[in-house]
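Ticket #4471: complex job returned nothing on first submit. Input attached below:
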Amino acid sequence: MSENTYAIVFDGEILEGFDLNSVKQRIQKAFSMDESRLEALFSGNTVVLQKGLGQFSAQRHGEMLEKIGMKVRVIASALESQDSGEAPPADTPPTELELEETDGLRPLNFEFSAKGAEYFRIWIVNLLLTIVTLGIYSAWAKVRTNRYFYANTRLDGSAFEYLASPITILKGRLIAFALLLGYVLVAQFAPIYEPAMILALVLVMPFLVVKALAFRARMSAYRNIRFDFSGSVGKGYLYFLLLPIVGVLSFGLLFPYAIYRQNRFMVEESGYGTSPFAFGAGAWDYYKVLLKAFGILILFVILFAVITPMMAIDMSTLAPGEEGGPPSPSMMLPLILMGVIFAALYQALLVYVKVNFINIKYGNTTLATHSLGASFHTGSYLWLIFSNTLAMVLTLGLFYPWAKVRKARYTAEHLMFIADGGLNAFVADQAKQVNAVGQEVGDVFDFDIGL
Amino acid sequence: MIKGQFYNGTESRGHRARIEVKDEMVSVHGDEGLLLGPVPLNDVDVTDRIANTPRHVRFADGSMFETSDNGAVDRLLTRSGAWIHQLESRLVYVVVATLVVTVLVFYAVRDGVPAIADAAANAVPPAAADKLGTKSMEILDSRILKPSQLSEQRKQALNDYFQRFISPSEGEPVEVIFRGGGYIGANALALPNGKIIFTDELVNLSENDQQLAAIFAHELGHVRLKHGIRQALRASALTIGIAVILGDVSSLSSMAVAIPVILTESGYSREFEREADGFAIERMQAWGIPGQQFASILALLDHDALCDGKPCDDEASVTGYLASHPATSDRIRRIQSAL
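Support reply: We reran it on our side without changes. The output follows.
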């Protein structure tokens, strides 16, 4: 993971097609600058506007500044830029201009300070106590884990909080455990009832998802104001059950629409204090992504369909297995290789879709006059998953804490919050009671909520 | 004194503040004066220390004080429950915890899960075992097996031959049925409801009926020792155990968890096969059937296992580990050493 920080520098130039005076006016308005600072900005010296940004938030900030007409450069941190030759001239050290006013658009990173080795200690003690208490401690372990990850995440200097109490979590877990036990035993001993159980699970799933979303939201706080989720169970059934069924029945044509409505539901019904989140994406954004992915898939299917018959010439000499013996490995190898490549490709496409959906969701979410953004990237996310899985297999699972921290860090680094002024204007809502059952059962059966 | 930010819980605006503790009373002071208190120390709720994450102090009116100064909080607003942090912060405890967890998991998987499953197996009512067997039979008949091509006479003769070895007092009745093997070829299967399946290919492969009796003894072992139920219960217990420890079932599908689970279940299968072999060797002695017949039929079934008439020595350990049966050469060796 890159630890470079990036800076945005301005040489006093504006982009083509922009008028100098109107750009200056916009800068003044956006950053509440007085005349003297404005002059310093356009003095012809190289000015450092922002520094210490992650790569993607630097790019994002740069894009924003270019929207008002400023021609900016994104460079790696000062120390490195001297090596790469992109430094401002050595004799005129860059002037720093504090743009972190309380008014104007400020792109903020989510700062994530957890460390794998540090979390390993928490995780291993959690495991030990969980095993020793035959699972009872797992509720405390979960709270401790979430508190660790939340509190290591900061925005604008303040940390997040996870407020759930272990006892509530434990109650939910016991019920979830009972359900899981029932399901597993039915699956093994009375498989005839398994379809009925699955149907029951499907029917209760939207209820659990809505409860889980509500619980997780209300147990999360920032600056002592809680988040909220106010989606109704009825709408949950509409978006998580009815629409997907319609999507399937329409031969997949309406499935992207169902996903769009699900994401919209999850964002629009969420809020921070009394302020609701708003969602600005449309169904077409989701269709675009899926059409592209589908197109690539078709391309590869055609490719493989063309290649396989050429490989099959060898296969015709395969005798059927004698007494159950396998065909010789040398003939199977090309086929197995192709199977592996195809599976890897399919995985990559799934990640491509997931990454793009995440970017759409966060890129179109706003809270009052603030907005969120995401710059997840298929390639780097694929590498993250692949390296995590490989390392976990090689270490028999001990790499798990590092894997979890890496994934959380990736998320934090690729999310951005564009604050319009300060974050002081939010107001708390009435605290609502919700029990943990929904969340726990939802968690155990892993409904993919949120990210 | 502890420095931090004070959030009153009504609005997200924070105030730079500091906590002072005096005579067991806590007060919060901001730039403009007193923000809260003094309140009794006992009325103040402080979060547990987790590594070096910010601490949150909560007051009865819902307001909150956030600080990164863990040292000061530990000194002035001491908490019980700090022992967990002690465990996590001292490297020696972490190393010990890692070792203990590894050992516990190893024994839990190797001995604990089987023990629980086997105890539960005795409690399973015969009706459940019946259902499991019937369902498996349906799947086998519809997907894999074909009707038997053996003559009625041959089937009846074999059945009578096998039944001679069973006394009603030793347990549930056992029935031998015959099927065409399909792609499983020469094979024998035991179902939990007491049905033992022989495929036509196996019957035709055998050189004499005593060899079939050897296989019958092995399969009878599966039935009498309740391997079907025990395997099902072990798989269930393993699944649930992992889900409880990891906290959710999605992890079960991840490669990192699936591989060890598959290897473990293979391991349990091989243990059962070894038990059934042991059962077969004993029974064959009691029935007066030469043990060599068992070795011969195994060799016929897996003709790769004999190298110039002797068990091979260099059978790859990987295939041995991965196969649900122990390596045939190992089995043959064991039989021959018992003779």
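Residues 78-102, 319-326, 444-451 of chain A have pLDDT under 50 and may be disordered. Closing as resolved unless it happens again.
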